[in-house]
Amino acid sequence: MKKIFGFSLIAMIGLLSACEKKLDLSPISLPTTDNFYTQPADFIQGVNAVYNALATYPDRQLNLSETRSDNLYAVSDGGVREWEGINSFHKTIAGNAYVTEAWSGNYTGIFKANLILEQLSGKGASVIADTSLRTRLEAEARYLRAFYYFDLVRWFGRVPVIDKTVSPGEALQIGRSAVNDVYSLIISDLQFAAAKLPEVYTVAADKGRATKYAAKGILALVYMTRSGSTYDINGPGLGLNEWNQALGLLNEIIGSSKYSFGASYANIFSYTNENNPEVIFDVQYNTGSTPVVGATFPWVLVPDAYFQALGKGTQGGLTIRPVSKNLLNSYEAADTRKGFSIQSGYVDNNGVTETRSFFKKYVDITKVPTTSRLDWPINFIVLRFTDVLLLKAECILKGASGTQADVDGIVNQVRNRAGLLPIANVSLARLMEERRKEFAAEGSRWHDLVRSGLVESVMTNWIPVEDVQKVMQPFQKNYLLYPIPQTELDVKPGLYEQNLGY
């Protein structure tokens, strides 16, 4: 991972930051932006700036999906922390930093995508003689714009659709769009990307860019998410029956022979085995650069005292976010994924034994940065081949073409790698439990529960048993969405209505 397409585009990123006004979705371009694009390399840098907005995506999934789910009982024991309101379903989290970042981070990426798309359709036609390059750059930008909007619609439901750069004044007239309208842009962008992106990149420096199969994989997940339960809220599920559309895309990925099922679970996440055949799309980081643009997600769920006990510097995880007893008890004795993903206690520098467990999945203690906690040298896998296989099984269980034997075969392939015996007649609930352990600490659990229709029953049953401190709010379906950030509501009162329940 010793790269990411020039995330060091300082001049461009600085310009974009300077352009942001009021609403995070509406930075306005300056005349100097047009002056920047004078050669093909400038357009490549412009697209690289769109990738840059992925930098906070991993942390967001750990803070908003993993922490919200039944995988963690993240009640703070060291003062009130931002994650406690997320974990405990507090109604007053509209000002929560994690919620605000989810909105602003994604809209920053969307603005950058809109900006480069306009430049490509304008000056790009005369500056970039290579039409295949111009088309590829457009496809990358549209893939990323769809990616950011998909993240937004899963967190907030209805959001403003902005498909061009707008002024602050114009943005103040744009309200939230219907979820189906948000999906229309997402699907259009991903279909274009799937048709125009290359299957692979032959130039080593382009490793990690979005491919045709990355677009097909995210599009399949979009169809599956749209097909999920509506819960009678304006959330990401529309109750559609698009499982076969998703299955077709997943089968294309499987049949491409571009990816394969890793023999070793731990090796998928090895610092020395990045871009392995399991990886379909990941967030890539460039370590050792100035400014620092490495990863921070490895320590998000790890308490600082653990690093200190091992003679390492404080990272930023602060106090412990314990893995829930429910998840710990769900692992079968022989499951090799448990020991790799979870640290079962430690002794701190004061000789005190911490008995609670926490996720350590991304921590290689030999790779702890020595100069900056913001510079971990590891990529974050967004979509991997095992996910595609298990999503296929989910589609079949939801009614897409296939048999129970197909489902059982997929699940048992995954279980075999984990050192477990085969099972039969896998149900949707059992499949979600298998996914829970396979993707623990990868940020998928909350999305899986919502998409599958199981979130109400799972969380309603989990909270009374797990919440020994009696601090969690009773679960209600309005909590499937996060609140619109208070900063956005305050810009122009009445422009956005708050999501129900907050």
UniProtKB/TrEMBL annotation:
This is RagB/SusD family nutrient uptake outer membrane protein. Belongs to the SusD family. Keywords: Cell outer membrane, Membrane, Signal. Residues 338-502 form the RagB/SusD domain. The keyword Membrane applies. The keyword Membrane applies. It comes from Niastella caeni. Residues 41-224 form the SusD-like N-terminal domain. Residues 1-18 form the signal peptide.
